[in-house]
Design a protein that fits this description.
Blueprint lengths: L17 H11 L3 H9 L2 H4 L1 H5 L5 H5 L3 H16 L5 H9 L1 H6 L2 H24 L1
Helix pairs in contact: 6-9, 7-9
């Protein structure tokens, strides 16, 4: 369901891999009985029209059912824990011109990428809180 990389792609305004995330949340929030029934009824095909009509914008994410919100929230926390530093440390480094200029060009670019990723993840935490 998630693809080869095992990750979802989030943007500032919406989930860019919305079909995969929507299906994953749906399945992971099902009870064992619901999953068996869904699978037996070939439910995977039946939902294609429903999935097409629902986009996972930031507004839609904030309206998810509580179990899905909790699952996303916990997943985001685990992802943030995988970073060596937090958002504030990245912000401080970006604001410290002297320290920033000591970084190589590649390190500066990596810093900007990490900072952007963390900001998106923190935004998602607020949406599903």
């Amino acid at each position: 369901m998630v693809g080869e990389e095992g990750a979802f792609v989030l943007g500032w305004d919406e989930v860019l891999t919305e079909e995969e995330l929507s299906m994953t949340l749906k399945v992971l929030c099902m009870s064992e009985e619901e999953f068996k029934e869904y699978k037996e009824q070939d439910g995977w095909e039946d939902d294609s029209e429903e999935e097409e009509n629902s986009t996972l914008s930031n507004e839609a994410l904030s309206r998810l059912k509580t179990p899905c919100k909790k699952l996303l929230y916990d997943s985001v926390l685990l992802t943030l824990e995988s970073y060596r530093s937090d958002l504030k440390a990245e912000q401080d480094l970006l604001n410290n011109k002297e320290a920033y200029e000591k970084l190589s060009r590649r390190e500066q670019q990596a810093l900007h990428v990490r900072y952007g990723q963390k900001r998106i993840l923190h935004q998602l935490l607020e949406l599903v809180r």
